[in-house]
Amino acid sequence: xxxxxxxxxxxxxxxxxxxxxxxxxxxxxxxxxxxxxxxxxxxxxxxxxxxxxxxxxxxxxxxxxxxxxxxxxxxxxxxxxxxxxxxxxxxxxxxxxxxxxxxxxxxxxxxxxxxxxxxxxxxxxxxxxxxxxxxxxxxxxxxxxxxxxxxxxxxxxxxxxxxxxxxxxxxxxxxxxxxxxxxxxxxxxxxxxxxxxxxxxxxxxxxxxx
Length: 210
Ligand SMILES: C[S@@+](CC[C@H](N)C(=O)[O-])C[C@H]1O[C@@H](n2cnc3c(N)ncnc32)[C@H](O)[C@@H]1O
Description:
210 residues; alpha/beta; seven-stranded mixed beta sheet; globular; binds S-adenosylmethionine
């Protein structure tokens, strides 16, 4: 089996195992670093919307009623929890097991693509952003929120140290910059907000109309 697939299977098992404690961990992280990012991202979603790496579905309560939602994740255990949450909320959502690096959708079939705290964990973030852009309709909106490399070097030094452990053990990256990947795909950045020493970044980027 190619190394990329071995890694993907290993990290999928990691997320399956983490699923039970994930919501609690996120609650702690978000209270400290990003209390309002889910509302900021999901409040701008409209029409046919794809959420990439949907996890346990923590964004589900934040979408407007008019949003027609599809969610993918490669961890069956995370998806089970998302399915349960969707049922509890009475929110229709088409949930599928899929790899963010090979989205099982035709080109240009979503008005909005959302990804929160996913690009720090998806092994090939460049390819994932390319896929997100591919499935967006011209004029569609890409909405991202994640933890990224901080603005000052001492912050980045701590993040680099953390990565020594988190990248091999969990596939978790701290020094990524989705902004540059989105720009490389030719999307226009409409909104960009950075906070908490630059470690939290949220973006709204539009795919140019054809
Ligand atoms: C930190 S969690 C974020 C979950 C959710 N987006 C949120 O905001 O709570 C990262 C998620 O990325 C998923 N993931 C990682 N690599 C993936 C890939 N290649 N394809 C699909 N999902 C992936 C994991 O299964 C996990 O659910």
